[in-house]
Amino acid sequence: MSKQTINAIENNRYDPTLQLAFKLAKILNTTFDDLFKPDDI
């Protein structure tokens, strides 16, 4: 994953694939739901 991809995800300008999303959750030791929970819930 590139720095540009991480930056885009952090700034809500990129929707990662499910595979990438699950890998991120695992690396960050969190759940998929907690990682991508909408702010309004």
Number of helices: 3
Q: What structural category do the secondary elements indicate?
A: mainly alpha
Question: What average pLDDT do the residues reach?
Answer: 83
Total number of beta strands = 0
| Cα radius of gyration in angstroms | 10 Å
Described by the principal axes of the CA atoms, the overall outline is globular
Question: How would you describe this protein?
Answer:
The protein has 41 residues and is an all-alpha fold. It has a domain at 15-41. Helices cover 54% and strands 0% of the residues. The protein starts with a helix and ends in a 6-residue tail after the last helix. The mean pLDDT is 83. Residues 1-35 form the HTH cro/C1-type domain. InterPro entries: Cro/C1-type_HTH, Lambda_DNA-bd_dom_sf. This is Helix-turn-helix domain-containing protein.
Briefly say what this structure is:
The protein is mainly alpha-helical and about 40 residues long. The chain has helices at about 5-10, 20-25, 30-35.
Keywords summarizing the entry:
single chain, 41 residues, mainly alpha, 3 helices, 54% helix, globular, Helix-turn-helix domain-containing protein, Lambda_DNA-bd_dom_sf, Cro/C1-type_HTH
